[in-house]
């Protein structure tokens, strides 16, 4: 029998029946047995790094406002709206025949400025941090300067001596490509076979070197890494291991707290928060979830959502083997239209961090993603790409499973005040004709 990280398939499914369901590409809901108080989770990461990232993004704000005028209204801070989606909530309740206690909101990272996906958090942050390191290191910049000077030709010339490389299923490539090209870096994006044609074209138009790979995401990353290592002036953005990306994402939590407060919502003992995050390799949802646990402590419960054909993080967590297992090991094909989530092997770094912080996880089939996509457009007028819908069924799972009764005795009475947030991770850049075909498919 084939051996997967020390056990046969039968041994794995015997110990964890959910793996058997996942191998049939069924939709599953999993509550993390290791989920515990945030104070007991040993992540080896510090909240100071998160604050450092937040401060860095503030230093760069005058520059961002200068080179991306669409960010002027927010003073160069790249942030997205938080919206209540009551019609969608009603529809979900009818469909599932279950009442969702509390309110349902959508965090519209789909409409983040510059690159229209959650990658505008981590990806752009990593390029900015690299640029700052270089400029500070060469004595061209001080932290106390007005960073809008970085838009001057002398900086474009300086950064053009350096290059940046990344491997991506699409959206990370867009964020890294757009930001790097804007600053003057030479930039190469290694795209996996599932990356959409329009994403490659858009990057090429911006002067980005796009390398296409016939294989999946992991191969594109591997090839990018290999080529980067040969060049000392190249910076490789490591989607699987980068702490910089991770902390860039984590800043979302501090911003979310402020947005909730502006809407008169205070999370605490009486008002628990549930957040549902679409997960690919894990950096984005992991960084955000880590940040949320630092900011809201035990009052927030984070769940990851993955495609039924690519549940890499969930397999890593259930087996405890993280990046030592892949979806292919368990007979899954990693084929999904949720291209942002088409990842066969999770980040080991993120898997380890999430072991005790994550409340649970669930999988979603492509047909459901399309159906939700069409409904979100029809009922709320919000247009998302398939990946971005993955978190939406989360509130139904929590309502159906009695999660709160089993894991937080006493919380049941407070569920009527609960806030559920589905994190909509992308869609803002999708061309109209592509979006129409998504909606059409969802209507069928
Ligand atoms: C990248 C991406 C995610 C997941 O982020 P990871 O860091 O890969 O886990 C989710 N949704 C969309 C649209 C994405 O592009």
Automatic annotation (TrEMBL):
It catalyses: D-serine = pyruvate + NH4(+). Gene3D superfamilies: 3.40.50.1100. Its EC number is 4.3.1.18. It comes from the Bacteria. Residues 79-395 form the Tryptophan synthase beta chain-like PALP domain. GO terms for molecular function: D-serine ammonia-lyase activity. The modification N6-(pyridoxal phosphate)lysine is found at residue 119. Its cofactor is pyridoxal 5'-phosphate. Keywords: Lyase, Pyridoxal phosphate. The keyword Cell wall biogenesis/degradation does not apply. Pfam families: PALP. Belongs to the serine/threonine dehydratase family. DsdA subfamily. This is Probable D-serine dehydratase. It comes from Bhargavaea beijingensis. The gene is dsdA.
